[in-house]
Model the fold of this input.
Amino acid sequence: MDQVVPAPRGGALLVVGDVVTDVVARHRGPLATGTDTAAAIRTLPGGAGANVACWAAHTGCVDVRLLGRVGADAAEWHERELLAAGVRPRLVVDREATTGTVICLVDTGASAERTFLTDSGASLRLEPADWSDALLDGVARLHLSGYLLFSEPSRALAEVALAAARGRGVPVSLDPASAGFLLEFGVDRFLAFTEGLDVLLPSRDEACLLTGLPEPADAAAELSRLVPLVVAKSGVAGALVARSGAVTARVPAVPANPLDTTGAGDAFTGAFLAALLTGMDPEEAAAQGCRAGARAVERVGGRPPHRGGDGQGMPLTNLTHKAPSVRNADF
Done:
């Protein structure tokens, strides 16, 4: 089986994935069906791909790039938020669909567990025409959001990007993203796509779903027979690192007082990839991921703080504008 491909130090991280607007509603206890439930509601930048990119920049990757697709309704705001987070965005502006929106229902109990209502909007309308092999110039790692696989156009883009990266010897990572969408998409179809990946970053539940095994350690080990390096994110149980059919490390979680678990896995992934690019081994990188995940759950929303503000709210005026077809900070 292929070995994990080391990425050259100092190169860029390119993330291809979803950019969405999160509406986070934090409530206590069960929702009151048919009437009102009191909640604290905020509108925040999100999207698994965008969150990963922001956390990678926040935790030390000096050159993070993002390819995503948004609607004209919020393109300027998302571009501004990404730039403020240290990410160089290339946002394709969709003239036919609005920016994807996710309603995050967060129970403010001890676990801060969340439930998502998802309208993917423009985010999964990325297509091969949005790709250029020049996007890989200077790139040391490519990361694909698993959400790309859940629509035909963005899946085709993911296949093109994966093939281009492999052709250049650029290692590729993937986060499965959603157990619910994964089940609908089909385990066998997903596993077929993993051929050619260097790193797979599933959650504990996703790892078990992909293998049919009830124990996360067994599932991670089994997946590492297909993908050279598997890092299974297990929340309060930390993370499992598996290679060549065996778990090689169990990395403990960092204690935290959770407010909102939205984006915790994205924070782990971003910090993990940033650490790999500095030359850390996977076990050390997973520890960095656990630290970022702990910081993430103590914030509302899926992004880290950034210069010039904390990224914790969207202005609700002047969002509609005449946007060009692509908005980007030139790569």
The chain has nine helices and 14 strands. The first strand starts at residue 12 and ends at 16. The first helix runs from residue 48 to 58.
